[in-house]
Amino acid sequence: MSMLVPFGPQHPVLPEPLQLRLELDDEKVVSAIPVVGYVHRGLEKLAEQKDFIQDTYLIERVCGICSFQHSMAYSMGVEEIMNIEVPERANYLRVIWAELHRMHSHLLALGLLADAFGFENLFYTIWKVREEIMDAMEATTGARVMLGACCIGGVRKDINAEQAKFVLEKLANFEKDFKRPAEVILGDYSVKERLCGVGIIDGKKAYELGTVGPALRGSGVAKDHRMTGYAAYGKLGFEPVVENDCDCYARTKVRVRELYQSCELVKAALAALPEGELKTPFKGNPLGEAAVRVEQPRGEVLYYLRGNGTDKLDRLRIRTPTFANIAPLLNMLVGCGLPDVAVIILSIDPCISCTER
Amino acid sequence: MRLFSIFKDILGNLVKGPVTRNYPAEVRDPFPGERGKLVIDEKSCIFCGMCAKKCPANALTVTRQPKEWKFERFRCIICGACVEACPKKCLSMVPRLAEEPKAEAKAKEKAE
Ligand code: SF4
Ligand code: SF4
Prior knowledge:
Distance between the termini of chain A: 38 Å
CATH class of the domain at 34-97 in chain B: Alpha Beta
CATH topology of the domain at 34-97 in chain B: Alpha-Beta Plaits
Radius of gyration of chain A: 20 Å
Strand order of the largest sheet of chain A: 1-2-3
Helix content of chain A: 40-55%
Shape of chain A: globular
Number of strands of chain B: 4
Bound molecules: iron/sulfur cluster
Order of helices and strands of chain A: EEEHHHHHEEHHHHHEEEHHH
CATH architecture of the domain at 34-97 in chain B: 2-Layer Sandwich
Structural class of chain A: alpha+beta
Oligomer: heterodimer
Order of helices and strands of chain B: HEHEEHEH
CATH architecture of chain A: Orthogonal Bundle
Shape of chain B: elongated
CATH class of chain A: Mainly Alpha
CATH topology of chain A: Cytochrome-c3 Hydrogenase, chain B
Structural class of chain B: alpha+beta
Distance between the termini of chain B: 56 Å
Radius of gyration of chain B: 23 Å
């Protein structure tokens, strides 16, 4: 006989409210029904009421983790509608902040995952390392998460030689300090016991269900929007990180490897940072529509914008990576045991506030 | 297969002392350019209203008659758009939202 168990919206492992109604047969999950909508803020509607320049700051607040990449995606959309050419230096700076954001987000996700399977010490250790990245962001932009650094036509802040040196120092600290927690999360028996062979979704199924980000790359599909070379990624020689095991361990491994990759990308971008303007001035209002994709820490985000020639947008639509990953998550949950549910949810690194906007 | 591999770190942590600062007795200096709060030099303000027009959070209201510049601090998202927009450069960002408890005063209190 099966029974229905509500998982969430208030659950110790969930940082944000998401409910999964689990249909259980004894301790095995037969099916899961998601319930979202607890933290809907109406940001898309609000964006239609503010002018499109103010929206840059509003859109940044869609997500409290990868905020810079949201404002970057939005700015890229308006730039596409208005045919604004972004200066080369601004493109490199965007890559630097986007990758710093990816690093802090992946560290946050790894820490929360450790917390989900009850490894508190690892959680603290990883979050301690994360502070290095937060410092790098604060020193370059004046804020820890809401950088406010991206604007339409370029960037608002610059990185001077001294700040660049500071960022490199912090990255060196990260590499040194992250070595031990990385060894533990990838090598320790107790961690492997919780992650290996759990939450399996094969590459074909993952692709069909529209999985994005590390969840897709952990199933052996080499899809990463940075491969298209937007901003300055095309010039930095980007290769996606792929793992083939299709389980929670593979997704964790993708994140750990992407951390080092992002670190290298920031270093390369700092070394190749060209001189020049920070932003292109523009006049007028957006008229027309655009759809833009950007690779965020959790996967690909889709922005659709439609301007009507006034300073207010007609429509703004955001499809966040977590939303795309909910269907694959339900697929992963089928057949797993109740104790693994938390680990599987955290393995897709859900961000609920940005899903519900 | 490695078991209990975190133990090395735990033992290290036991002898190393805390990694956090002894806040509030010990406060880190703010980074240059940190956005803490908005301040205005009202003497040079010409009440043009540019700042209020640019503010994404509707935190500012400026009226010409009577000459008034009003700021709702709790609406402000500390973005700095108004600072960039002001033609008279009378707005600025200072680090730290609130006064930090003075480190020396605390230390002195302890010593007494
Ligand atoms: S800092 Fe931003 S939110 Fe605050 S008053 Fe200025 S423009 Fe408005
Ligand atoms: S933009 Fe500057 S000068 Fe104009 S009202 Fe605001 S603070 Fe005063």
